[in-house]
Amino acid sequence: MKIGIVGLGLMGGSFALDLKSIYPSSIICGYDISKSNSLKALNIGFIDKIIDLKDLSFADLVIVSVPVDVAINLVSEILNIIGKDSIVLDVGSTKAPICDFLKLHPKRKNFLACHPMAGTEFSGPESAINGLYFNKTNIICEKEKTCPKLFKKVNEIFKRFRMKNIFMDPVSHDTHVAYVSHLSHVSSFMLGKTVIEKEKNEKNIFDLAGSGFESTVRLAKSSPETWTPIFLQNKNNIADAIDEYINSLEEFKKNILENDKEKLKSVLNKTNRIKEILNKNVDHEK
């Protein structure tokens, strides 16, 4: 299989590594707007060759892993380049804008909108890791608009990755991920901001921060270049999620100030149900 990876950071690089693990004889070529990233990817070894966009005409499969605001026009451009039997997929965290933009593209059937629920807080070619896509949930939007033969080809990869496909319309996707993905990043960034601004002495943060703080603020290490366009593209859904979050925080604050032990305990007990929900997902991944 001849594969093109566009965007050679965490998501694109890890996709290349995972593809190499299941198709060791495949040829994986890469493109990145950063020449430095392209050279790093080649030196690390998850691509076999650096190419220009125009060279993607050779590819059976193209994976686009760039910021979501860049992806819209870039995917359109790539669709113009590829052959009739090739498929392009993106791994972006928003789906409604790109699906809407491409709805009238002459090669819409050669595109699959998907969102693997995978990632880490790190970025760049050095962050690419083996196994990132294995046993993950993969949200697919507008499957019916993708050529069935081409979908079957790329779905074979998802099966080899042991991914759990969930089919969803783009608007519903963006609504749900605002709560289960985007809000957690907002929360982490704002927790980090609050502590940095309140604790002027950075040594106090380093000395006093426990594992709870570290795990909660982990996502604040994520790339601003990746997350700024996500927040802006999904701004209405994220604004609704933030409003709900603020309401919960205000109620929680009120319970604390009123020394309402029973209400606090009740809220914490109800929220503990998140363990059951997440454990079900862990059981699936096993």
Could you describe the 3D structure shown?
With 286 residues, the chain is α/β, with parallel strands linked by helices. It has two domains: 2-168, NAD(P)-binding Rossmann-like Domain (Rossmann fold), CATH 3.40.50.720; 173-285, 6-phosphogluconate dehydrogenase C-terminal fold. Helices cover 55% and strands 13% of the residues. The chain is built from twelve helices and eight strands. It has helices at residues 10-22, 35-44, 68-81, 96-102, 148-160, 170-198, 202-208, 211-217, 224-233, 235-257, 261-271, 274-285, and strands at residues 2-6, 27-31, 49-50, 61-64, 87-90, 111-116, 137-141, 164-168. Strands 3-2-1-4-5-6-7-8 form an eight-stranded mixed sheet, sandwiched between helices. Strand 7, helix 5 (148-160) and strand 8 form a beta-alpha-beta unit. The longest helix is centred in the middle third of the chain and has 29 residues, at 170-198. It is globular.
